Every structure is written in structure tokens, then in C-alpha cells.
């Protein structure tokens, strides 16, 4: 499936007549970097389409590729905002921003050019859920979600909207309507993925560590709520206290052994259980269910 989505991406980029050589070349190179991690959002779309249709339309690979273009554009913009220098697109941010904008337009344009009866509804879903994700990204950048409820609402928008979008576009192209159950577990998958990323961020004390960057995530929110010496030093560090001393070893130990990581894992597992309970009552085939289970591990 990854190979077929990748092939569709290659064709889309090659055949887009309205972009020049330099833009196309950057698009191709950025896509190659994306290829390494796979096309999970496009696969969500394909698997939900396959689960609910009686007759497979090969244009579904174009739609899956379109979704991956949108996701890649969001990844690029996110990395540019975070000043993440691990990717090629961070080397020329001004030019890369144009590539991201081109991808956004191409995503909608590609779906519009398919033969699906319900393609306009699919485009509407793409636009609505993309805007919800952008709103969540704005809240994340503002760094204002500092309690469990507001943080979970933020990642519901930022990450949950995109996984739900992939599921719902596949469903609507197959049967012309969407179901609240698919939307709900689709969002939960995104929330689970984001919590896993939050936990991973704290395992390395480097430039991407959320705590060192004074960002908020579930483990950090838990740590800051504790009344001990480590939490007090972290609070002082977050409040820009110039004499604050942050003991990395003590802080890492508190995160790992003081309950913060376990708390985040527990919240993740609550969402996994919710998703699995819903999934039991949805008529999706075993292939689809197995893939969804893999994403929630």
C-alpha cells in the first residue's frame, strides 16, 4: 500500500503543470524524506474506503496521496515554526514555505479531479478538519494549555483532527456519508499518537526536549502539579527565575519514577480502550482493525 501511495505521489508531482522545475524538484526531495516514515494517514483513508465499498476505484490511491501531501505540508510548517533543523526543508525556510503552500492547494485539487461521486464532500471534510488542526497547532504554539483538560482538547484538535480526517474521507468516498463512531475513534488514534510523542520527547535531554524548551505536555503538567523539590525547581525554570537550578538527573528520575510518565501512559491507555470499544461495533474488516490496533500500541 505504501508503494502504491508513493507511486501516486510521484505521478501527482510530475504531472502538476502549474509548478516550475525548482518547486517540483523541492517537492520531490521532500516527498522522499516523507517516504522513509511511511504513509499512515493515506493508509487510514484507503483502509476505510476498502472496508465500506463493494467496488474498488483505483482513484483512491490518488486521494490517499492527496491526504499525504496535506500532512507533509503541515509537517513542514510545524518544523519551520519549531525551528527543527533535522530535515532538508529547514535549510531554506522561505522556499520550503512555498512548497508547503503548493502541497496544500494540490491536495484539494487532486481530490477534485478524481471520479468519485462524493468527492466534494471529501474536500469539505479535508478543509474542515485541516482548519481544526491548524487551530490546535496555534494553541500549541501559544503554549497556553497548562492543565489536563485544555491540553487534551488541544491535541484533540491538532492531532486527532488529522487522523479522523483520513478515516472519514475514506468512509465518505465509499458510501456517501460518515459515522460519528469512525470520527470518534479516528480522533482517539491521533490523541494516542501525540501522547506517545510527548513521552518520547522527554527521553532525550537535547534540543527537542519539551521540558528544556519550557513546553507543556501531559507528563510535564503532572510533574508541575507535585509538591516536591524537583517540581518547584521546574516551576522556577519555567517562570524564568534567573537563579533557578535545573538538575537534569533528578528531573529525569522524577519524570520516570515519580509517576509523570506512568500518568501519561494511563491517559493514553484510557483513549485506547475507548477506541477499541467503539471499534468492536464498526463494520470494518480485519485488515483495517489490525492496522488501527497497530497505531494504538
Automatic annotation (TrEMBL):
Belongs to the FPP/GGPP synthase family. PANTHER family: ALL TRANS-POLYPRENYL-DIPHOSPHATE SYNTHASE PDSS1 (PTHR12001:SF69), GERANYLGERANYL PYROPHOSPHATE SYNTHASE (PTHR12001). Keywords: Magnesium, Metal-binding, Transferase. Gene3D superfamilies: Farnesyl Diphosphate Synthase. It comes from the Bacteria. This is Polyprenyl synthetase family protein. Its cofactor is Mg(2+).
Amino acid at each position: 500500500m505504501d508503494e502504491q501511495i508513493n507511486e501516486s505521489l510521484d505521478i501527482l508531482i510530475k504531472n502538476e503543470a502549474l509548478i516550475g522545475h525548482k518547486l517540483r524538484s523541492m517537492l520531490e526531495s521532500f516527498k522522499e524524506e516523507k517516504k522513509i516514515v511511511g504513509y499512515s494517514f493515506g493508509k487510514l483513508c484507503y483502509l476505510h474506503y476498502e472496508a465500506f465499498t463493494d467496488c474498488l476505484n483505483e482513484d483512491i490511491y490518488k486521494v490517499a496521496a492527496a491526504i499525504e501531501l496535506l500532512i507533509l505540508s503541515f509537517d513542514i510548517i510545524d518544523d519551520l515554526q519549531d525551528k527543527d533543523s533535522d530535515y532538508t526543508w529547514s535549510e531554506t525556510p522561505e522556499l520550503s514555505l512555498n512548497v508547503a503552500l503548493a502541497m496544500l492547494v494540490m491536495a484539494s485539487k487532486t481530490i477534485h479531479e478524481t471520479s468519485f461521486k462524493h468527492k466534494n464532500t471529501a474536500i469539505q471534510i479535508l478543509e474542515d478538519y485541516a482548519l481544526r488542526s491548524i487551530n490546535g497547532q496555534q494553541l500549541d504554539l501559544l503554549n497556553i494549555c497548562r492543565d489536563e483538560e485544555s491540553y487534551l482538547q488541544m491535541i484533540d484538535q491538532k492531532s486527532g483532527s488529522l487522523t479522523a480526517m483520513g478515516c472519514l474521507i475514506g468512509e465518505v468516498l465509499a458510501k456517501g456519508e460518515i459515522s460519528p463512531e469512525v470520527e470518534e475513534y479516528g480522533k482517539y488514534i491521533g490523541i494516542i499518537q501525540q501522547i506517545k510523542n510527548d513521552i518520547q520527547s522527554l527521553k532525550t535531554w537535547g534540543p527537542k526536549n519539551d521540558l528544556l524548551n519550557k513546553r507543556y505536555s501531559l507528563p510535564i503538567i503532572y510533574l508541575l502539579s507535585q509538591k516536591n523539590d524537583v517540581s518547584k525547581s521546574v516551576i522556577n525554570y519555567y517562570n524564568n527565575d534567573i537563579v533557578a537550578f535545573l538538575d537534569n538527573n533528578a528531573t529525569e528520575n522524577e519524570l520516570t519514577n515519580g509517576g509523570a510518565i506512568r500518568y501519561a501512559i494511563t491517559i493514553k491507555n484510557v483513549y485506547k480502550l475507548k477506541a477499541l470499544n467503539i471499534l468492536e461495533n464498526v463494520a470494518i474488516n480485519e485488515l483495517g482493525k489490525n492496522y488501527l490496533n497497530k497505531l494504538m500500541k
